[in-house]
Structure formats: structure tokens, C-alpha cells
Design goal:
Layout (H helix, E strand, L loop, with lengths): L11 H22 L8 H6 L6 H11 L3 H14 L9 H19 L5 H8 L2 H34 L3 H50 L2 H10 L18 H17 L2 H8 L4 H33 L16 H10 L5 H33 L7 H28 L4 H25 L5 H41 L5 H10 L4 H6 L6 H20 L15 H15 L18 E3 L2 E3 L3 H6 L4 H12 L1
Helix pairs in contact: 1-8, 1-14, 3-8, 3-11, 3-12, 4-12, 4-14, 4-16, 5-10, 5-12, 6-7, 7-8, 7-14, 7-15, 7-16, 7-17, 8-12, 8-14, 8-15, 9-12, 10-16, 10-20, 13-14, 14-15, 16-17, 16-20, 17-18, 17-20
This protein binds pantothenoic acid and sodium ion (NA).
Pantothenoic acid binds next to helix 4, helix 12 and helix 16.
Length: 612
């Protein structure tokens, strides 16, 4: 397919730039293997000694779910369908605030080692194991997409050996993850995130220049109909609207940033609860920047190619390849830049795969092995390292599976997050917010949720594929002329929407929201049928007191309404931090009121904990 323009080749300097990425990543692993506690305990290998601060955590949190899939998939989405997808940025507000103020305080104060330990504390061992297995399943499929995507893109455009690239990513990742543990994974994420941004900036810089400046890019994109206003259409089967992206996206973000072990492990590895919360505040601008850069690349590509679509000209075989084609086409006169962009692509994937290896090793150790076998710390650490290595090999195998069934990578990845991550989110929400939910309800909810998720997800896949077949059939028939009107109407009749078809055409952006809601509803129904849990039997600290917090908020307002009442309200508002000075209660300033808004009791707890 590439013959039309010839396969582009890397110059020596490109190989040097790219090689440096691999060497530095491995060096970070080596450094952490021989510094600190030398990775001799599982606390260090899997929890980074609970010593991390918010800045590296923020960059690492972003890197986990930002793989080559986003780097090549997002610009391709904008290039073909316009800027509507950009509105997913609206979902980042609630999608990060909710984990920061609801999920993190619960996880952190329970001093967990894995997110799924929560499920045992709240429900039972069975729920924990079901949760762990679901997570393992999700991450293994996702890793396959994550490792295959950059390798395929590179292969299609530069002729770089496909399985050579897969092996390079898999091996480098396995080495530094196994040697350096979570600390190496997080610090490598920091370095790789910087490389990622550098590569994207370089492409935008050169692309804007080639297209004739920013104003020209804007004009061409607007004239080509690629600038989209917010689409308020409430139809849930529309792929991208404000509702699917901005509201459905919140559930996607909750599944990823709220309850996914890879992220929860980072919150838990934080030095204090406050640092963990801060890291989510800091990841917000980083995510917005990453989204903006990849959307801009899409617009710049459009400005450069407009009438000259490389897919139609058959320079590329798949929509997702347009970015690398563009990079090799535009950057070849700038030695080193193609190498930088490939480094960017590999950085994105390395940081995702390494987080996946480490989190998979953690849950296998903490949730599946440690509760059932007692072993010495040194043995446990060795076993954790072997697990990280084994998951590395498994990841290579998954790349092969993805090689066989491929579709648009961005949609595939987000569908997986919703189909497997959505039901998991549901189980956690059932635990946090519904005291009466019991273990039977949680397990039934999860199983039904997963079944519905796969039914809708696979139904959608099959329906889309048969629609493509129908579409191509009908155009073939139409080409023959008038005589064939009969068959055409037949096609129209068979494609009349039924309830099932409507279900299958649900936007993939809603998967997380719909599937988690199903788990909550089924979970509650079954809990009430099998005997709801009494609130006094629920492990303390595992519930989020929704009503309690609302009531407190209400009382806060009540106490503050007339400022003159401050000195009389000490008794009625026990949760307010009153400053005692010489025996008199002083007024709490507006700023302090802001700070004490929800997590008042939280703060006291954290301060107590961190001083221990
Ligand atoms: C996770 C989000 C939605 C956050 O913006 C985005 O980065 C994304 O769609 N990622 C796709 C999966 C990936 O890049 O591997
Ligand atoms: Na990544």
C-alpha cells in the first residue's frame, strides 16, 4: 500500500534519538534497582515505599492511560470527523474532582495495598477475587492494543519490522519494571511524558509552518467543516455529542482515574493523602494539554492535506495510520524529528505497558497469592518480579491477538474501558454509596453487568461490520442501474431500527455509564431480595456518607449565614474547626471556610495519620 509514495526511512540521527529513549528508560530501572532499598521488599517494589510526591505522580497518572492509541487515534479522529471529540475535555472536571474528594480519602485511609482489598473489607473475599480477575482481564486486553498500535504504525510507514518493534517495547518495559519496581515505573513515566509532549510540539510546529501559519490552519479547517460547535443532540446513539462526551466521559474517567488499580496504586504510593489529592488537581492541566496537542495535530494535518486525503489515495491502509504518514511526509527534511516523534509514540506506550505490568503484578500478589499463602518477604518480592516478567510475555501474546482482530484503536480502547471498567466502577459505587448492598448483590451485579456489556459491545461490533457489508452491497447494486431497485428496498427494510439495533448502536462513550448503572441497580435489587446489609455491620471507613456530608454542608451554611452568630454556635456546629485563643472562639475567615468545606473530619484524620 505504501508503494505509492515509497516507504520512508529513518536517518542515523533518528535512530540515535529513538535509541536514547530506550537507553534512558532502562537506566531509570537500573538506578532504582541499586538505590534506596534496592527493591528487596514488596512495599518498595509495588508501593514505592509510600513515599511519592504529587508532581511525579501527576505526570505518571496521565501517562498510564495515554498510550500510542491516543497519540495516533485522536488526531485521526479530528482529521476525519472534526473537533467534536475535543469536548471530552469537559468530562475531566468532574471525572477528576470526584476521585479526588470521594474515592481517594476512602482508599487512602484504609491503608490498602490494592484497590480490590476494599471490596473484601466492604463485601467479601469472593467480591474481591471477582474484582481482581475482571481488572486483570481488562488490562491484558488493553495492553495488547497498547503495544500493537505503535508497532503497526511504525511498520506501515517506515517499514520497521512489526514484531521487532513489539519485542522492543515489551522487552524494554519488562526490564525496567522488573528491575526498578514502581519507583522506576513512575520516574520513567515522568521522563516519557516529557518526550511525548516534545514530539507533539515538534509536529505541530513544523506542520503549522508547512500549512502557512496558524491563521491559515484555522481558515482551512473551518472551510473544510472540521470546526464543530457543541452538539446538544440528546440521542444516546450519536457517537459524539456533548452528552456522550461530557457526561458519558465522566463515567469513563471515573472507571480509569477512580477505581482502576494502576491509578489507585499511585494514590496509595503517595506520601500523604493531600499529595494524592493534589496529584489529581495537577493532572487536570496536563490532560487538557495532551488533548489539545493531539487535536491540534489533527487540524494541522487537515490543513496540509485537505484535498489530498492519504487514505483515499491509498498511501495508507487504515485511518489510524494518517498521523505517522503525515510525520514522515512533513518531517523528513528535519533530521532527528521523525525519530523524536517515534520516540513520542513509544514513550506513550512504554509508560502505559509498564504501569500495566506493575499493577498486574501487584494485584496478583496482593489479592490472589498473599491472602492464601504465607511466604517470606524475599520470596514474595522475587515472585512479584517473576509475575511482572510473566505479564510481559503475556502482553506479547496479546499483541498477536490484536493483530488478528483490528478496528479503530481509539474506539477499541475506550470500548474496553467501558465494557470491563464500567462494571467494576459499578461495584465500587455500590460499596461506597449504598450501605444496604451485600456481597451476593455485588457479585450478581458484576456478572450481569459484564454480560450486558459484552452483549452490547459485541452486538455493536457485529452490527457495524454487517452494516459495512450491506453498504458495500447496496452501492454495488446501485452501480448496475435502475433494474435493481428491488434489492435496494429489501436492504432498506432489513435495516429498520428495532429495539435491539438501537441497543447495539448505543454510543461507545456511554458504555461506562450504562454498565456501571446496571451493576448498581441489579446489585441493589439482589441485595434487597437476599437480605440487605445493616449499616452497623459494614466495616467502618468503607462507606461514603452522602447524607451526612450534605447535612454538614447545610449546617455549615446555616452557622455562617449571619456572621454575628459565630460566637454562639460552637456547640451546634461541632464539625467546624474553632480556633481557641485565650478561651474565646475566634471567627473563621472565608478562606478557612472554603478549605473546610467538605473534608473537615478528613483533615483531622490525615493530620493524625501522617504524624504517626
Ligand atoms: C483516557 C483518555 C480518555 C483521557 O483523555 C484518553 O487519553 C484516551 O482516550 N486514551 C485512549 C487510550 C490510550 O491512549 O491508550
Ligand atoms: Na502511556
Amino acid at each position: 500500500m505504501m508503494e505509492a509514495l515509497g516507504v520512508k526511512h529513518f536517518s542515523t540521527i533518528d535512530f540515535v534519538v529513538f535509541g536514547m529513549l530506550l537507553v534512558i528508560s532502562v537506566s531509570i530501572g537500573l538506578y532504582h534497582a541499586f538505590s534506596g532499598g534496592r527493591q528487596r521488599t514488596t512495599q518498595e517494589f509495588l508501593m514505592a515505599d509510600r513515599s511519592m510526591s504529587c508532581l511525579p505522580l501527576a505526570l505518571s497518572l496521565m501517562a498510564t492511560f495515554q498510550s500510542a492509541v491516543a497519540i495516533v487515534g485522536t488526531p485521526a479522529e479530528i482529521f476525519y470527523n472534526g473537533t467534536q471529540y475535543w469536548f471530552i475535555g469537559c468530562a475531566y472536571f468532574l471525572g477528576l474532582l470526584i476521585p479526588a474528594h470521594i474515592f481517594i480519602p476512602i482508599f487512602y485511609r484504609l491503608r490498602l495495598n490494592s484497590a480490590y482489598q476494599y471490596l473484601e473489607l466492604r463485601f467479601s473475599k469472593t467480591v474481591r477475587i471477582c474484582g481482581t480477575i475482571t481488572f486483570i482481564f481488562q488490562m491484558i486486553i488493553y495492553m495488547g492494543v497498547g503495544i500493537y498500535t505503535p508497532a503497526l504504525a511504525l511498520n506501515a510507514v517506515t517499514g520497521f519490522h512489526l514484531w521487532g518493534a513489539v519485542l522492543a517495547i515489551g522487552l524494554v518495559c519488562t526490564v525496567y519494571t522488573t528491575l526498578g519496581g514502581l519507583k522506576a515505573v513512575i520516574w520513567a513515566d515522568v521522563f516519557q511524558t516529557l518526550v511525548m509532549f516534545a514530539g507533539q510540539f515538534a509536529v505541530i510546529g513544523v506542520g503549522v509552518h508547512q500549512a502557512g501559519g496558524p491563521a491559515e490552519v484555522w481558515r482551512k479547517a473551518r472551510d473544510g467543516g472540521r470546526i464543530s460547535g457543541i452538539d446538544w443532540n440528546p440521542d444516546p446513539t450519536q457517537r459524539h455529542t456533548f452528552w456522550t462526551l461530557g457526561v458519558g466521559g465522566v463515567f469513563l474517567m471515573l472507571a480509569l482515574y477512580g477505581v482502576n488499580q494502576a491509578q489507585v496504586q499511585r494514590y496509595l504510593s503517595s506520601r500523604t493523602e493531600k499529595q494524592a489529592i493534589m496529584s489529581l488537581y495537577m493532572v487536570f492541566p496536563c490532560l487538557q494539554l495532551a488533548l489539545a496537542l493531539s487535536c491540534l495535530i489533527g487540524l494541522v494535518m487537515f490543513a496540509c492535506y485537505k484535498e489530498d486525503n492519504p487514505l483515499q489515495k491509498q498511501y495508507i491502509a487504515k485511518k489510524d495510520q494518517v498521523v505517522l504518514y503525515f510525520v514522515m511526509d512533513m518531517l523528513q527534511d528535519f533530521p532527528g524529528l521523525p525519530g523524536l516523534f517515534v520516540a513520542c509514540l513509544f514513550s506513550a506506550s512504554l509508560s502505559t505497558i509498564s504501569s500495566a505490568f506493575n499493577s498486574l503484578a501487584t494485584v496478583t500478589m496482593e489479592d490472589l497469592i498473599k491472602p492464601h499463602f504465607t511466604m517470606e518477604e524475599s520470596k514474595a518480592t522475587l515472585l512479584s518480579k517473576m509475575l511482572a516478567f510473566l505479564y510481559g510475555l503475556l502482553c506479547l501474546a496479546m499483541a498477536y491477538v490484536v493483530h488478528i482482530l483490528h478496528s479503530s484503536v481509539l474506539q477499541a480502547a475506550i470500548s474496553i474501558f467501558g465494557m470491563v471498567g464500567g462494571p467494576l466502577l459499578g461495584v465500587f459505587c455500590l460499596g461506597f454509596f449504598f450501605p444496604s448492598a451485600n456481597s451476593t448483590g455485588a457479585v450478581t451485579g458484576l456478572v450481569v453487568g459484564l454480560a450486558v456489556a459484552f452483549w452490547i459491545g459485541i452486538g455493536n461490533f457485529v452490527a457495524r461490520n454487517s452494516a459495512i457489508v450491506l453498504e458495500s452491497n447496496s452501492t454495488d447494486i446501485l452501480d448496475l442501474g435502475n433494474i435493481t431497485m428491488g434489492p435496494v428496498t429489501a436492504v432498506v427494510e432489513t435495516s429498520q431500527p428495532s429495539i435491539l439495533q438501537a441497543l447495539y448502536s448505543l454510543s461507545y462513550m456511554w458504555y461506562s455509564g450504562v454498565n456501571s448503572t446496571i451493576v448498581v441497580i441489579i446489585g441493589l435489587l439482589v441485595s434487597y431480595m437476599t437480605g440487605p446489609m445493616a449499616e452497623k455491620d459494614v466495616t467502618p471507613g468503607t462507606l461514603y456518607p452522602v447524607w451526612g456530608n450534605l447535612r454538614r454542608l447545610f449546617q455549615l451554611r446555616g452557622c455562617y449565614a449571619p456572621p454575628a452568630q459565630h460566637n454562639t454556635s460552637a456547640q451546634e456546629c461541632p464539625i467546624l474547626p474553632q480556633k481557641e485563643m485565650n478561651g474565646t472562639v475566634t471567627k473563621v475567615t472565608a478562606e478557612e471556610e472554603q478549605q473546610t468545606f467538605l473534608p473537615v473530619t478528613a483533615k483531622v484524620l490525615v493530620e493524625q495519620e501522617s504524624s504517626v
